[in-house]
Amino acid sequence: MKALTYLKRTLACACVLSALTLSQSGMALDLAGVKIDETARVGNQDLKLNGAGIRYKAVFKVYTAALYLTEKKTTVPDVLAVPGPRRVELVMLRDVSSEDFSRAFIKGIHNNSDKTEKAKIANQLQKFGELFSKILELKKGDVLITDWIPGTGTQFSINGKMMSDVLPDLAFYNALLKIWLGDSPADFNLKSQMLGQAAS
Q1: Which residues have C-beta within 8 Å of that of residue 189, sequence separation ≥ 6?
Q2: Would you say residue 14 lies in a domain?
Q3: How far apart are CA 20 and CA 117, in angstroms?
Q4: How many structural domains comprise the chain?
Q5: What is the pTM (predicted TM-score) of this model?
Protein backbone atom coordinates (compact mmCIF):
# COMPACT_ATOMS: atom_id res chain seq x y z
CA MET A 1 0.00 0.00 0.00
CA LYS A 2 2.81 2.37 0.93
CA ALA A 3 4.62 1.47 -2.29
CA LEU A 4 1.49 2.28 -4.31
CA THR A 5 1.03 5.61 -2.52
CA TYR A 6 4.70 6.48 -3.14
CA LEU A 7 4.33 5.57 -6.80
CA LYS A 8 1.26 7.79 -7.18
CA ARG A 9 3.04 10.71 -5.57
CA THR A 10 6.11 10.22 -7.76
CA LEU A 11 3.96 10.12 -10.90
CA ALA A 12 2.06 13.22 -9.79
CA CYS A 13 5.31 15.13 -9.21
CA ALA A 14 6.62 14.00 -12.57
CA CYS A 15 3.45 15.26 -14.29
CA VAL A 16 3.68 18.63 -12.54
CA LEU A 17 7.36 19.02 -13.44
CA SER A 18 6.65 18.04 -17.03
CA ALA A 19 3.82 20.58 -17.28
CA LEU A 20 6.02 23.31 -15.80
CA THR A 21 8.81 22.53 -18.25
CA LEU A 22 6.44 22.66 -21.22
CA SER A 23 4.86 25.86 -19.93
CA GLN A 24 8.22 27.57 -19.43
CA SER A 25 9.55 26.54 -22.81
CA GLY A 26 6.52 28.04 -24.52
CA MET A 27 6.38 31.19 -22.43
CA ALA A 28 7.17 34.58 -23.95
CA LEU A 29 9.69 36.83 -22.25
CA ASP A 30 8.02 39.27 -19.83
CA LEU A 31 9.40 42.81 -19.57
CA ALA A 32 7.51 45.27 -17.37
CA GLY A 33 4.30 43.36 -18.09
CA VAL A 34 4.92 43.27 -21.85
CA LYS A 35 5.03 39.83 -23.44
CA ILE A 36 7.94 39.58 -25.88
CA ASP A 37 7.43 36.74 -28.35
CA GLU A 38 10.32 34.39 -29.07
CA THR A 39 9.62 34.51 -32.81
CA ALA A 40 8.17 36.95 -35.36
CA ARG A 41 6.89 36.41 -38.89
CA VAL A 42 8.31 38.95 -41.35
CA GLY A 43 8.28 38.68 -45.13
CA ASN A 44 7.01 35.09 -45.03
CA GLN A 45 9.96 34.09 -42.87
CA ASP A 46 10.18 33.21 -39.17
CA LEU A 47 12.66 35.33 -37.21
CA LYS A 48 14.20 34.59 -33.82
CA LEU A 49 14.31 36.97 -30.88
CA ASN A 50 17.91 38.18 -30.76
CA GLY A 51 17.47 40.16 -27.57
CA ALA A 52 15.15 42.57 -25.78
CA GLY A 53 15.23 45.12 -22.99
CA ILE A 54 13.73 48.30 -21.59
CA ARG A 55 14.64 51.83 -22.68
CA TYR A 56 15.11 54.00 -19.61
CA LYS A 57 15.32 57.77 -19.54
CA ALA A 58 16.65 58.74 -16.12
CA VAL A 59 14.57 56.46 -13.85
CA PHE A 60 11.57 56.29 -16.18
CA LYS A 61 10.69 53.29 -18.34
CA VAL A 62 9.93 54.58 -21.84
CA TYR A 63 9.43 51.45 -23.97
CA THR A 64 10.48 47.85 -24.46
CA ALA A 65 12.56 47.08 -27.53
CA ALA A 66 12.98 43.68 -29.16
CA LEU A 67 15.25 42.78 -32.08
CA TYR A 68 14.38 39.85 -34.36
CA LEU A 69 16.78 38.34 -36.90
CA THR A 70 17.03 35.21 -39.04
CA GLU A 71 19.83 33.99 -36.75
CA LYS A 72 21.19 35.23 -33.45
CA LYS A 73 24.06 37.71 -33.54
CA THR A 74 26.02 39.25 -30.67
CA THR A 75 28.02 42.01 -32.39
CA VAL A 76 26.83 45.13 -34.19
CA PRO A 77 28.70 44.44 -37.47
CA ASP A 78 27.15 40.97 -37.61
CA VAL A 79 23.66 42.36 -36.98
CA LEU A 80 24.06 44.98 -39.72
CA ALA A 81 25.34 42.35 -42.16
CA VAL A 82 22.89 39.53 -41.42
CA PRO A 83 20.88 38.57 -44.53
CA GLY A 84 17.12 38.30 -44.70
CA PRO A 85 14.34 40.25 -42.99
CA ARG A 86 14.68 42.00 -39.63
CA ARG A 87 12.34 43.52 -37.09
CA VAL A 88 12.54 46.00 -34.24
CA GLU A 89 9.41 46.04 -32.11
CA LEU A 90 8.79 48.75 -29.52
CA VAL A 91 5.99 48.73 -26.95
CA MET A 92 5.37 52.02 -25.15
CA LEU A 93 5.50 51.94 -21.36
CA ARG A 94 4.38 55.56 -20.95
CA ASP A 95 2.67 58.31 -22.94
CA VAL A 96 5.08 60.34 -25.11
CA SER A 97 4.31 63.16 -27.54
CA SER A 98 5.07 62.32 -31.16
CA GLU A 99 7.26 65.44 -31.33
CA ASP A 100 9.47 64.24 -28.48
CA PHE A 101 9.60 60.72 -29.89
CA SER A 102 10.47 61.79 -33.45
CA ARG A 103 13.10 64.20 -32.10
CA ALA A 104 14.71 61.32 -30.17
CA PHE A 105 14.67 59.11 -33.28
CA ILE A 106 16.24 61.74 -35.52
CA LYS A 107 18.83 62.62 -32.87
CA GLY A 108 19.70 58.92 -32.53
CA ILE A 109 20.31 58.64 -36.27
CA HIS A 110 22.42 61.82 -36.39
CA ASN A 111 24.49 60.70 -33.38
CA ASN A 112 25.33 57.35 -34.95
CA SER A 113 25.72 58.11 -38.66
CA ASP A 114 28.49 60.01 -40.42
CA LYS A 115 27.96 62.75 -43.03
CA THR A 116 28.21 60.35 -45.97
CA GLU A 117 25.63 57.97 -44.48
CA LYS A 118 23.23 60.82 -43.66
CA ALA A 119 23.56 62.30 -47.15
CA LYS A 120 22.71 58.93 -48.69
CA ILE A 121 19.49 58.53 -46.69
CA ALA A 122 18.44 62.22 -46.49
CA ASN A 123 15.23 61.81 -48.54
CA GLN A 124 14.14 58.71 -46.64
CA LEU A 125 14.96 60.36 -43.34
CA GLN A 126 12.72 63.30 -44.27
CA LYS A 127 9.84 60.97 -45.17
CA PHE A 128 10.34 59.08 -41.92
CA GLY A 129 10.20 62.31 -39.93
CA GLU A 130 7.00 63.35 -41.72
CA LEU A 131 5.11 60.25 -40.59
CA PHE A 132 5.11 61.49 -37.00
CA SER A 133 3.05 64.51 -38.10
CA LYS A 134 0.17 62.04 -38.48
CA ILE A 135 0.39 61.11 -34.80
CA LEU A 136 -0.33 63.47 -31.92
CA GLU A 137 0.84 61.19 -29.14
CA LEU A 138 2.10 57.71 -28.50
CA LYS A 139 0.12 56.07 -25.73
CA LYS A 140 1.19 53.47 -23.18
CA GLY A 141 0.66 50.07 -24.81
CA ASP A 142 1.11 51.29 -28.39
CA VAL A 143 3.17 48.89 -30.52
CA LEU A 144 5.61 50.33 -33.06
CA ILE A 145 7.14 47.90 -35.55
CA THR A 146 9.90 48.62 -38.04
CA ASP A 147 10.51 45.80 -40.52
CA TRP A 148 13.18 45.33 -43.14
CA ILE A 149 12.01 43.08 -45.99
CA PRO A 150 14.58 42.32 -48.71
CA GLY A 151 13.32 43.30 -52.15
CA THR A 152 10.70 45.57 -50.56
CA GLY A 153 12.31 47.89 -48.02
CA THR A 154 11.57 49.39 -44.62
CA GLN A 155 7.97 49.30 -43.38
CA PHE A 156 6.83 51.17 -40.29
CA SER A 157 3.55 50.47 -38.48
CA ILE A 158 1.80 51.48 -35.29
CA ASN A 159 -0.70 49.07 -33.76
CA GLY A 160 -0.77 47.13 -37.03
CA LYS A 161 -1.46 50.18 -39.24
CA MET A 162 1.10 51.08 -41.91
CA MET A 163 2.26 54.64 -41.29
CA SER A 164 4.49 55.46 -44.27
CA ASP A 165 5.49 54.51 -47.78
CA VAL A 166 8.05 51.73 -48.07
CA LEU A 167 11.58 53.13 -47.77
CA PRO A 168 13.81 51.05 -50.06
CA ASP A 169 17.41 51.51 -48.89
CA LEU A 170 19.00 49.02 -46.47
CA ALA A 171 21.34 51.83 -45.38
CA PHE A 172 18.32 53.61 -43.92
CA TYR A 173 17.23 50.55 -41.92
CA ASN A 174 20.77 50.11 -40.61
CA ALA A 175 20.75 53.79 -39.59
CA LEU A 176 17.58 53.08 -37.61
CA LEU A 177 19.19 50.06 -35.94
CA LYS A 178 22.11 52.24 -34.85
CA ILE A 179 19.71 54.31 -32.73
CA TRP A 180 19.92 51.37 -30.31
CA LEU A 181 23.09 49.61 -31.45
CA GLY A 182 25.42 52.44 -32.53
CA ASP A 183 28.44 53.87 -30.72
CA SER A 184 26.16 56.42 -29.02
CA PRO A 185 23.03 54.34 -28.41
CA ALA A 186 19.83 55.53 -26.80
CA ASP A 187 20.60 53.30 -23.81
CA PHE A 188 23.82 51.29 -23.36
CA ASN A 189 22.16 48.60 -21.25
CA LEU A 190 19.42 48.23 -23.85
CA LYS A 191 22.09 47.86 -26.56
CA SER A 192 23.66 44.96 -24.66
CA GLN A 193 20.28 43.31 -24.14
CA MET A 194 19.25 43.61 -27.80
CA LEU A 195 22.56 41.94 -28.68
CA GLY A 196 21.62 39.07 -26.38
CA GLN A 197 24.16 40.08 -23.73
CA ALA A 198 23.70 40.78 -20.04
CA ALA A 199 23.16 44.42 -19.16
CA SER A 200 26.09 46.10 -17.44
Answers
A1: 53, 56, 199, 200
A2: no
A3: 49
A4: 1
A5: 0.84
